[in-house]
Amino acid sequence: MNASVSVDGFIAAGNDDPGPIFEWLVSGDVPLDGSGVLKVSQASFDHIRPYWDEIGVTVCGRRSFDITDGWDGTPPSGIDHVVVVSHRGAPEGWDPKAPFHFADGIDAAVATARELAGDRTIEFAAGDVGGQALAAGWIDEVRMDVTPVVLGSGRRYFGSVDAQHLLDGPDVIVAGNRVLHLRYRVRR
User: Fold this and answer.
1) What residue segments make up the domains of the chain, in order of their start?
2) Do the bridges between strand 81-85 and strand 55-61 make them parallel or antiparallel, or are there none, so unpaired?
3) How many angstroms separate the CA atoms of 58 and 62, rounded?
4) Containing H/E element for 147?
5) What is the C-alpha separation between 74 and 61, in angstroms, rounded?
6) Which long-range contacts (CB under 8 A, 24 or more apart) does 40-46 make?
7) pTM (predicted TM-score)
8) Average pLDDT, whole number, for the chain?
9) 129-144, pLDDT tens digit by residue?
10) Which InterPro entries does its entry note (predicted)?
11) Phi, psi at 75, each rounded to 5°
């Protein structure tokens, strides 16, 4: 499970605007991808780029898909496939060759993601879908890119999780420009 998050635990405001949460992605001088837009500190690059390279599939919710307009049919960060958890299928006019797959529920999404990922990592986006996956026991680690922003309210990192879940660590702590990268293993 992974996302950028405010210090008070939100991934976006209530209107889905992340505000300055993503400032760290343009606060350095090391290109993070081929777009020329994302430039981070060397410490952030050394932490994030290898992780992005190991991801085979990202599982996200329909809200993320709709807000980003399905990333125009190209998965973000060079990821091979995106599985969208949604009770609705692909939007009308959607390119059927785009590497996006729609699953009706978290268990169906996991089954599809496992098929597609092979031996690569399955990443869950934080928020409602990530929270559902954590509650179902599908999450092995929680990665947070904590930014120096207080939103006060909005979309919670763990969505609507309402039960206690214990994490170990953090086993990774990396300070970058405008971000603190943390990684916790989920205690079993």
Assistant:
1) 2-21+55-186
2) parallel
3) 13
4) strand 141-147
5) 16
6) 40/176, 40/177, 41/176, 41/177, 43/174, 43/175, 43/176, 44/174, 44/176, 44/177, 44/179, 44/181, 46/174
7) 0.93
8) 95
9) 999 999 999 999 999 9
10) DHFR-like_dom_sf
11) -55, 145
